[in-house]
Amino acid sequence: MLLGARGLNDRGMKMRFKRLLLIINLILMLLPVCGCGDKNENGNATAFVIGKSDEATAKDTSLQEGENISEIPVIIINTEEEEAEPIPSQEPAEEEEEEVIWDFDKRIFSKETKSPDQVVLTFAGDISFAEGYSNMSRLRDCGEDINGVIKPEVSQGLKESDIFMVNNEFPYSNRGTPKEGKTFTFRAMPESVRYLTALETDIVSLANNHAFDYGEDALLDSMDILKEADIPFVGAGRNIEEAMQPVYFKVNKKVIAITAATQIERTANPESREATEDSPGLLRTLDATKMVKCIETAEENSDFVIVFVHWGSENTDLVEASQRELARKYVDAGADLIIGAHPHCLQGFDYVNGVPVMYSLGNFWFNSRRVDTGYAKVTINTTDEGCSIGEFRFVPCIQNGCTTSLATGDEAVRILSYLQGISDHATVSGEGVIEISDTNHNIQNGQNTSPSKEYIRKDTEEETEEAPGMLTLPDGTVIDPSVLTLVDPANSEVTDAGGTDTGTVTGEENVSSDGT
């Protein structure tokens, strides 16, 4: 029947239609009694049946006495209830697995996390595997086991995170020539990338003032070697477009973006060359324009943006105006977290418009000096509402004698208390938890209070780079203990001391091979 064919998706309309059909059926059943019904070919009334045409239903119709049920024409009007739509199962549907992506061209990488609603990231400062320095000699003394120089209690903390990032302060290559006129140039053997793998490193920054020490070929080799080791890098590229490209980690159906750039060296024509449209190099941020664009791109394509920046001056815990200015520009562009490196010592914490900033992580494993160091540990909540920082923590460590160890007891208390005194609108708890504060806690009064200030060179007003493991003797002579070469700054003559790993220097000075 066409009656009621429209609007049947409405449950109330269906019920009204069925009641109407029942009334029509009753009227039609009375028609034979009053002689008003239609007649079949035998002169008998036609039965109208609502429902199924089974025998029980047929017996309820008006039949002439003795008439056979099969002889009665039946018009069927189906009023059966439509099958109710199934109620969705209350059991949670099995979530589809995220597509695994590991794309170096697009710099998008999937990462499993230990928690379905959190991702934990750790960040360490400068690390060096450059040949010819005492820290590498110590590493070989330990059977080339990185846990011999970065102690297991430190490396284990890094491995417990979901994403670990470090500043890769050198190129991996057998090619290239050192930049002419540069005081210290670093280069590691290609196979040294295995130390990053042993630390379970997830990403490195190449945006620093030593990645280009051996020129274009060595930088290109570094990018290829890191790719072969399945370690993403950021802050450098084969051209400026690639150097400006953020790295994206897909975690818990969210996207974490990491960007990197270097402010050092701060000259018009830096030796650490910026990439161009058709030549490899770094992403520089002395002028913040390109880095700001990089951050804006990251913000448009992710849920959380991290900036890892190489800035500031060496061996001072004083944060410069240029660092603060850059931090403000980064936050305005969309940064959610800023981590700094380069000064070779710790610098304090601050919050810029609610965004946490650590100005310098210092040296992580770089040379033989005794310096306070550590790593930042950031827990990001990944919920349906988006991403937010759940906890920001600093884990104090000490680098000494080419070894980085966890700071404990009084030493841990000392480092955390020191950090509180050089931090601005941030509190540092006894457990290393960093939180925003309305009060400025900085007590430096414009003074460099870093324990590393003793390493500032006395023979020049400009701060120059101290290489890993290099020693300055009282007479101003600079010693590289691993190759035992004497450099006399007065006449720039280089003399082969004739030793190898014994640490014995001709003359009255004796220096051990580990630089102490």
Structure characterization notes:
Helix content is 20%, strand content 25%. The protein has 516 residues and is of the alpha/beta class. It has an 8-stranded mixed beta sheet. Strands 5, 6, 7, 8, 17, 18, 19 and 20 form an 8-stranded mixed beta sheet that branches. Strands 23-24-25-26 form a 4-stranded antiparallel beta sheet, with no helix packed on it. A hairpin with a 2-residue loop joins β10 and β11. The radius of gyration is 38 Å and the shape is globular. The N and C termini lie far apart (101 Å).
Radius of gyration: 38 Å
Which structural class is indicated by helix and strand composition?
Answer: alpha/beta
Strand percentage? 25-35%
Number of helix segments? 10
The overall pLDDT, averaged over residues, is 81
Weakly predicted, low-confidence segments:
1-11, 35-39, 45-67, 69-77, 458-516
Q: For the largest sheet, list the strands in their spatial order.
A: 3-4-10-11-13-14-16-15
Overall, the morphology is globular
Helix content class: 10-25%
Q: Could you give a short account of the major beta sheet?
A: 8 strands, mixed
DSSP summary, beta strand count: 26
N-C termini distance: 101 Å
Concise structural overview:
The protein is an alpha/beta fold and 516 residues long. It has helices spanning 11-30, 55-59, 134-141, 152-159, 193-198, 215-228, 240-243, 289-300, 321-333, 409-421; strands spanning 47-50, 74-77, 102-103, 108-110, 118-127, 163-168, 203-205, 233-234, 236-237, 247-251, 254-262, 281-282, 304-310, 337-341, 346-352, 355-361, 363-365, 371-383, 386-400, 403-406, 426-428, 434-436, 471-472, 478-480, 485-487, 494-496.
